Amino acid sequence: MKEITAKVNTVELINKDVYQINLQVDDLSFSAGQYLMVVLPTGEQVPYSIGSAPHELPQVILYILVSDVASLANKVVEYIKSNAEITIKAPGGDCHSHNPVLDSNPEHILLIAGGTGFSQIKSVYSDLVEKNFQGNVSFYWGLRSAEDVFAQEWLEEAHKYSPFTLDVIVNEESDQWHGRSGWLYEAILNDHPDLSNCVALISGSVNMVYGTLDQLESKGLNKDRCFSDVFAYAPHPGK
């Protein structure tokens, strides 16, 4: 990873606790699905998936969840807000679109995100659209409630103009939500009961990634055809 100066264009709160950060980075190349590190003045380096695709450079988008004002995420957002330029390190991560398995003509590619794991999966999805990928691709995004949904404009555009399927699933039903509800893995298995010829990329918390993997493995998904950054730093709980 190399150290790069990024210009801060905008910092916007796009729902109750998710910020969209728009940067301009002139000296960057990356594969869709990779991440960057925000370097704080303290020397701390905080990883965030790049939420935009390579063809959108030099513009780079980050989505940062701030659930607590005392959190490191809030410290990062406040630092970015107060500076015209920041230092980043990039790119990092092995879970990305330049994956030989994606070139092996799998029957179906499942792109699965929980919460702000959306960022990484959105980048891969947009990259496959831009490259006119001819295979079957399904993007599943799971969230707790309707008020947790963000990037509405992008979702609307993706539904209109991309050749792949995109489903948002919330755990909690409400009068404000008219889409799919329930557990993320249930929606996937309802649409794809046999996963033996599928490839999956999963992005989210450790528990979300491994919990989803366990459910999908039971329906034929091969662990060797499933990819996540989580695998690089967290062991499978209970295994």
TrEMBL record:
Domain called FAD-binding FR-type: residue spans: 1-98
**Which protein family is it in?**
Belongs to the Fre/LuxG FAD/NAD(P) flavoprotein oxidoreductase family.
Q: Which organism is it from?
A: Marinomonas profundimaris
- Name of this chain's protein: Oxidoreductase
Q: From the UniProt record, which GO molecular function terms apply?
A: oxidoreductase activity
- Alphabetical GO biological process terms: bioluminescence
Q: Record's Gene3D superfamilies?
A: Nucleotide-binding domain of ferredoxin-NADP reductase (FNR) module, Translation factors
Q: What is the superkingdom listed in this entry's lineage?
A: Bacteria
Pfam families given for it? NAD_binding_1
The alphabetical list of record keywords is: Luminescence, Oxidoreductase
